[in-house]
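Q: My labmate handed me this sequence with no annotations at all. I'd like to see what the chain might look like in three dimensions before we decide whether it's worth expressing. Could you predict it?
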Amino acid sequence: MSGFLAGAVALLALASVLIVVPLLRRGPGRGAGSSGPPARGAAIAAVVLLAGGGAVLYGTWSAWSWQAQAAGSAGPERTVVQLVQQLEREPDDLQGWIRLGRSYTALEQYPLASRAFQRADRLAGGRNAEAIAGLAEALTLEDDTELTGRAGRLFERALELEPHSGKALFFAAVAAERRGEPALARERFAALLALDPPETLRAALERQIAALDQQIANTAMMPGEATGLAVRVRLVSAPAARAADLAHAPLFVIVRDPKTPGPPLAVKRLANRLPQDVTFTAADAMVPGRGFVAGQTVEVVARISRSGQPAAGSGDPFGQLRYEVGRDGLRELIIDRSVP
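A: Here is what I predict for the chain of 340 residues:
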């Protein structure tokens, strides 16, 4: 597919925030005979995970394989059928379960990918970094909040087993950045840079490292800067938003400044589990230095995507509210409308 190339262009404008996610989440199909990790066929949008230059970094990462790979002749759907049949005959085939997990990830069937990688992890006795990182990736792609929870811990475990795992380094760097640990994030992005990536990815990594250097310097100069500002909403749904066909549809939550055109302040892609509480802090800002300011009025939009894409589609249930940063506490946001 041409999603990665289109995504790189879309990142240049607001459309990137609403369109690049599904493009980045669909990578070229990989056959079962690939010798290295597959393309990140279902990568979460960088706008969800990274700030500023990191958005470009995520898009480039998603298109790059850190190991040479042979092009497979079968698409992921056919590969799944073949692997399932093979694993029925050879249930202890570790690499077969890993390939099955990759294929399910490429098809965006994350719960099935998680099961396959968990089976591989059990067969390996918890000592296979690829199985652990694959499981963590599937959990993250299904619900990006996992990156600061179980998935984040799994990536750390994968790094203990394989310190040069490009996938684990990348996601662990993002997790560190989201936890407010820019120095650790910088260290891991620098380790990625040492893996000798191509020039396009090298430039993105260097920009991300430079942004983190600036963030670290700013923090050192302003140790007393307020960091407790947050936007907190409790998402609930009206009956129309509980339709059975929406159970596995992703939930996008967007915070934007209604007075300022351009990219949103922050975006999260979550599993459609309602009710649930969502919190945005400065660590979720898309662009460094463009976080929340006390007294600022922002707009929070929550939308369940029937298509699985971040761009609004006809019939998508949504809700929105105005939120005053520093004054409002936990607000209830009801998903009770539908996109015309």
